[in-house]
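Researcher: Go.
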Amino acid sequence: MNTYIKNKYIALIIFTISFIFPNQFGKNIVQYNEFEWYYAQSNHFDIYVSDSTGYHIDFVEEHIEDAYNKIKSLLNWSLKDRISIIIYSSHNEFQQTNVISSHLPEGVGGVTELLKNRVVIPFDGSHREFKHVIYHELLHVFINDCVYGGNLKSMMANSIEVRIPLWMNEGLAEYISEKWSTNSDMWMRDLVLNGKNLPHVNQLTGYWAYRGGQSVWKFITEKWGEESIAEIIAQIKNKGDVNRGVKAAISITVDELSDQWHQYLKKQYWPDINNKSNISEISFQLTDHLKLKNHYNIAPVLSPNGKEIALFSDRDGIINLYLMNATDGKFKKRIIRGERTLDVEEMHILKPGITWSPDGNQLAVAVKSGKSDAIIFFNLDTNKKEIKRFDIKGIFRPTWHPKKNIIAFIGNNGFSSDIYIYDIDNDNLVNYTNDWFSDDQVSWDSNGENLFFISNRGTHTKINYFHEINDSITKNIDIEQYDIYSININSDEVMRHTNTDYSESYPHYSNDDRILAYISDKNGINNIYLKEDSYAEAMPITNILTGITQLSWNIETDQMIFTGFNNSGYDTFTIYNPKKYLDSSIDLIDANWLNQIVTTENIIEEKVFDYSILNNSDYSNYDFTQINSKRNNSKNNKENSFDNDLKKFDSTKPLQILKYKTRFTLDYANVDYGYNSVRGSTGLVNILFSDILGNHKILINTEMQIKIKSSDYLIKYYNLSKRTDWRYTFYHYGQEYYDFQEVEMSNGQMVTDLFPTIRYQYMGLSIDPSFAINKFQRVNYGFDLRSNSKQEIIWSTYYDNDEVADKEYFKIFLIPSLEYTFDNTLWRETYPVEGRRMSVKYLNSVLGKSNSSLNFNSLVFDFRYYKTIVNGVSTAFRFYGGSFSGKDASESVRFRVGGTSYLPFFNNATYSHAYDVHSFDQVYYDTYVMPLRGVPIGTKYGRNVLLMNAELRLPFLMYYFPWMGLLGKINGVLFSDLAVVWNENQNFPSIDNAGSWDNINDFDGYKIYPNNNDPNLNQQDRLINPLGWVWTFGIGPRFILFGMPWQGDMAWQYNPVSKQMSSARWYLSIGLDF
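Model: Structure:
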């Protein structure tokens, strides 16, 4: 997965949101572990590990240097700088990284980011997958280096606008990792044979960017040769445009490439319709993801009596554990809810495992639970669950002994994946295989004496010799090849059951221990095979078009359950008495891709793009906008780095493991523009430093004026290395205003040589710890020491710098705060669709009760609830409440309710009541509460507020119109906002009292005066009651344009007492829904 920034504008928005305006909600990155980091240097890489033994370093060094040479040859490009590779020993530890500032779900197997062009990879127990991810992520490193200049600051500084499409980037990464595979072929075969219309290459997003993009590159290299890879990337970089680059490289446009790819796919797969079967033709289909409107119905396993099936399904939008009727496929009940609670953060659907107890009264499932993996035991009689954790980094695929209270499972110990057996009654855990090889997919025979599993151990049938493993063994093992083995738990004898060039998986024995069933891709498609003994030839019992991905054989009922892929989704199927198919003869025809060899018959005759015109200088500071003019205006400025000692690598010496020391390097420096509908526009210089691991960050943010006192500047230091995150901030905001009311005038001329100015200064120092309780909950607390001052400056002349200052106002006070936050929401596109968010915050200003302090208390709660109704349609509710109290609360601080954050010039909101704020304290301490669409900003203000928002979020049909394709998919909202504001010394406004509502007929949406700047009008002349009720409603589209989320809102105000409605007020804004 590549997390490069799509373009510089998105980078600015992400930077601003992440650091300048921290998000109130969001899932936590929890540092459960305190890592001690070490590193070693290979020829081109600095490899970081969290283990002093450096166990993974040799493996990573071998494969990443091999990958480097391969990609270097394919792209005709060498990396300019050393690259940092950060390795975690498990996916649970990988989720604790601070290199990426957001939570990494189970489906993310590795990331490459653009701030420092770093790679972060977890070891999940499989050396095959480990190698795959190394190749995949290194391709992203090369693209970042070649196209974007190596890092974000280079891309921003040189205004590099070209963006490699997701399908091209992720597809090429998959092609580099493995040119083609059974899984990729299954997805593309299904798309061609079951899809209505083949997508344009630019429509390959999400998972299709990987599988579809890989297919496009397979087509390109088969037609134009692998040399075309370097040519295409080079020409895109040279032309500064994807379409023109592709045209220059292979003489066709992207549209023509898409059309030719479609024809290629049809020739590849259409002939298979006549010689293969649909899954439903050879089995009974129990689930239908098209009717359920979901994607996954996976990992099915029959109960011992054969009446029920336990399986994972996302029928409710998230992966849950369900019980289903084994006869008709009707869902009976949800057993365990996933992804929403601390007990079950993730269901491990990539390595799923569900198992029944022998008596059928309990289910066991492996999950991510808090700081570690765990096995959850669920009692179906009592509906109670028990969680069992072990000192293991990963737990997968549990399977219950058919007669005893024993469970076997696959465990990742940080170095390898082994078979573990847990004795439940004696609470005893044993690592049975305990070696370097990757074991997976374990199952029992009918007597519980043998465990069947797959492994890449080759001829090494000895177990329990982890410490005897050496390079002569590991470097000669084909880690890609998995075969079927069994181990006798009494004698520890290991037997090999298959020895093929294909991949076998999911072995299961029959109830009479006579027949072995498993999945094999012998013909390039995953089918089910049966084998009577170790020496007999395996017989296929299926010949399907797409593929079978999981298999379970019930020992008691002789019923086979499996997961099949069809119509871009996974469903559960069953075959009764599969042994009867042994007498049938099925001849499988190989898939076309097995017989294809990438040829170079049609290699382009043009010379591969010559990078030499670009390689004469360091590209981290090269201006790519000048490439087209063939002018080399590069600068020989070298990166100012604190990591100089890391560059002293000596390739003649063996790898040395060294202790990591924190060093800062520059991530980002740029002048950014922002707009706030309350404060107006602003231009800021943002500079960000961080260390390699992302544990320490320094942010400098400034808007400097000629005078320091009149400037804005902010310095933040983040320490994220432990469970509690610490943020230290020093800030200063200064503003000057000419006080024209104090200038003595006569006939339009100043009659005094003094020119008064008012300077406001607002500065402070804050300490803000944040303790992550778990993924969903955190407690923020802090101390903010603030001071406010107001000065009247008398200039001796208008242009003179001399000044005489009279300090009219100075206050200093300390504000402790405490906040609890909860967030377990699930997102779709630009808004949450499931779950809850909640925040409760209290703060209190202290440090004396004198006139030099500001004394107030504040309590605010914000609760939000989201629920999916049907596919694509959801509801959202928000309840917000706040109260100010204390000596200075009546005048100095208040809530200002109304409006939304809109863009200037893109609205008809002709007035903002933020302009009515004259008190210095109110400027900095008033709280603006939004959205309340349909009225101006700050319409209602007071010391107590309640706000309720309700939205129905749904897809619009407008995207069917051709011109709407420019905006992509469009969503929309129907909304209603209701608010009430009151003060503590007044009665709560009655909702049925006409005096509690504004007279819309008079004010019509608060368009009161044609000239709001008329000095003869003051706030009282506006005749607006700042207290009372406001109710608005409206509609608006949501879409993505220029890579950014846009919101359009049209709203009306309604008075339910007078039954009057205002004219429409509309806004256009950039941002996400609540």
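Model: The two ends are 28 Å apart (CA to CA).
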